[in-house]
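Example S7 (structure tokens).
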């Protein structure tokens, strides 16, 4: 468990700072940094909320399927594990798709001249 959290921490540390710098540096004029920051934080929060909702829905549907569609008693760990497994697999698939898309996105920067 500690190893997985350590890897997660390194991955976040390697991704967030350059990503934030790229987004905030995308504003070409003064004053656009605030707009870029607002859009970035809005998308980050919406993504987090939708991610929790989708992953939770997948887990609950799988657990209910195992329980026969009836929630009569609290599920046992043996009934919970497949639901969490399916939810994490779905999250992994989404992450791999997004990583694949990001490989094909090219960054185009405009150089401003001294007279701007």
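Recovered sequence:
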């Amino acid at each position: 468990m500690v190893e997985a959290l350590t890897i997660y921490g390194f991955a976040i540390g390697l991704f967030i700072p350059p990503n934030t710098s790229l987004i905030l540096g995308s504003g070409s004029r003064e004053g656009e940094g605030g707009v870029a920051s607002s859009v970035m934080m809005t998308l980050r929060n919406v993504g987090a909320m939708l991610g929790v909702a989708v992953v939770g829905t997948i887990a609950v549907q799988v657990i209910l399927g195992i329980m026969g569609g009836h929630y009569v008693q609290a599920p046992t760990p043996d009934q919970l594990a497949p639901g969490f497994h399916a939810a994490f697999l779905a999250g992994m698939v989404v992450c791999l798709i997004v990583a694949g898309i990001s490989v094909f996105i090219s960054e185009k920067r405009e150089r401003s001249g001294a007279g701007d």
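Notes on this example. The CA atoms of residues 45 and 99 lie 19 Å apart.
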